[in-house]
Automatic annotation (TrEMBL):
It is found in: Cytoplasm. GO terms for molecular function: imidazolonepropionase activity; iron ion binding; zinc ion binding. Catalyzes the hydrolytic cleavage of the carbon-nitrogen bond in imidazolone-5-propanoate to yield N-formimidoyl-L-glutamate. It is the third step in the universal histidine degradation pathway. It holds the Pfam family Amidohydro_1. Keywords: Cytoplasm, Histidine metabolism, Hydrolase, Iron, Metal-binding, Zinc. It comes from the Bacteria. The keyword Kinase does not apply. This is Imidazolonepropionase. It catalyses: 4-imidazolone-5-propanoate + H2O = N-formimidoyl-L-glutamate. GO terms for biological process: L-histidine catabolic process to glutamate and formamide; L-histidine catabolic process to glutamate and formate. Residues 73-414 form the Amidohydrolase-related domain. Fe(3+) binds at H81, H83, H251, D326. HAMAP family: HutI.
Length: 416
């Protein structure tokens, strides 16, 4: 078959092993790293990836050939945990944090998430759209081609809906593909006066059915944490969401281990996210129930903690893990997934191959798109990050500089 485009002469191509499911435990150490190879693209999809020169049968008179001598190619990166859409920002809390006031104490005083809720409620659709688009523009130049985006800064229907509609509109208009998660259970809104149970019942009765009916999100998520939502409330909400056909994620063991992981294991959520405070017992449960561990080392860094999620233990227990930014205005104000990948190495001692698997093949399965993205299997979308780096180790080792040179989305060059 004749290719539309051939990207060639790569010094390395990182090809995750694609068995139709996330890579678990020791499988995450493996990848096909092709030396001196090419990527042939047809109709926006992968036609062939192989070592050596492209054969004559791939090349027609219209085939565009692009030379990438000395560069590394990987599948487009997938940021599978972000709080993308929000009003305002929270750098005003930074000095407090530096003076030792904790994240949960700032929230208790009505700051933190609740401060962003106020700014988001008062922001227009256009304002939220522009801000989120700017974040996506940043993400794409760092090699990201798919993003999961959570709501959760409205905590009332009007604003949650506005957030979800911004994601829908951006999914149409921006080259990045978006996967939407409904997360109204992100904090108890002030008008509920601390009554989390009542708020959860309201979400179940009034919001969840509308999100489903208007097809505004595929996943449902909840922040299971001390002073936010209990494990019991998390179970109640996620069970109701499951019945309506939502896929499930849960913010668990971010700061304290209060049972979120048990809920994840019981309901077989696609992932449990954060897991900084995960216990050995929790890891065993997640491993047995096939819950993907979504790790967010940028949040540990930004919260100025030393306890990174025990990634190695999770791999030893046979879990699949992903890494993402958690991009949000409070606990992790960044859009740079490369820095997160580097923290995966520097702070969690993951290897470059494990890190690349975490943000490609595993992240693809964790957002429900494992059949379309995350590897270079023939027929998958030609979402590609091209690195100004000679090998897989280099962009993890050479930190805090954007080393992505080009990004292809559905076979088209989108950033330069
Ligand atoms: O994932 N944990 C809860 N939610 C976000 C933080 C949101 C915020 O601080 O605005 C998180 O860390
Ligand atoms: Fe989060």
């Amino acid at each position: 078959m004749i290719a539309d485009k051939i990207l060639t002469n790569f010094s390395q191509i990182f090809c995750p092993i694609d068995n139709g499911q996330p890579l678990k435990g020791a499988e995450m150490d493996q990848a096909n790293v092709i030396e001196n190879g090419f990527i042939a693209i047809k109709d926006g999809k992968i036609l062939k990836v192989a070592a050596g020169e492209p054969e004559a049968s791939l090349i027609g008179s219209h085939t565009k050939i692009v030379d990438y001598s000395g560069k590394l190619a990987s599948p487009g990166l997938i940021d599978c945990h972000t709080h993308l859409v929000y009003g305002g920002s929270r750098e005003n809390e930074f000095a407090k944090k530096l003076n030792g006031v904790s994240y949960l104490d700032i929230l208790k005083e009505g700051g933190g998430i609740l401060s962003t809720v106020r700014s988001t409620r008062s922001a227009s659709f256009e304002n939220l759209y522009d801000k989120s688009k700017r974040l996506l523009d940043q993400m794409i130049i760092h090699g990201v081609t798919t993003v999961e985006a959570k709501s959760g800064y409205g905590l009332n229907w009007e604003t949650e809906k506005r957030q979800l509609e911004v994601v829908k509109e951006l999914n149409h208009n921006h080259p990045i593909d978006l996967v939407s998660t409904f997360m109204a259970a992100h904090a108890v809104p002030p008008e509920f006066d601390g009554d989390g149970d009542a708020f959860i019942e309201m979400i179940i009765a009034e919001m969840l059915p509308q999100v489903k009916e208007e097809n505004l999100a595929e996943f449902c998520d909840i922040f299971c944490e001390t002073g936010v939502f209990t494990a019991k409330q998390s179970l109640r909400l996620l069970e109701a969401a499951k019945e309506l056909g939502f896929k499930l994620r849960i913010h668990a063991d971010e700061i304290d281990s209060i049972g979120g992981v048990d809920v994840a294991a019981e309901l077989n959520t696609v992932s449990a996210e954060h897991l900084m405070a995960a216990t050995d017992e929790g890891i065993k449960k997640m491993s047995e129930s096939g819950v993907i561990g979504n790790l967010l080392p940028g949040t540990t860094f930004s919260l100025m903690k030393d306890t990174y999620a025990p990634a190695k233990k999770m791999l030893d227990a046979g879990m699949a893990i992903t890494l993402s930014t958690d991009s949000n205005p409070g606990s992790c104000p960044t859009s740079n997934i490369q820095f997160i990948m580097q923290l995966g190495c520097f702070k969690m001692y993951l290897t470059p191959v494990q890190v690349f698997n975490a943000v490609t093949i595993n992240a693809a399965y964790s957002v429900g798109l494992g059949d379309q993205i995350g590897s270079f299997k023939e027929g998958k979308l030609a979402d590609i990050a091209i690195w100004d780096a000679p090998n897989v180790d280099y962009p993890l080792y050479f930190f805090a500089t954007n080393l992505v040179q080009d990004v292809y989305k559905h076979g088209e060059l989108v950033s330069k």
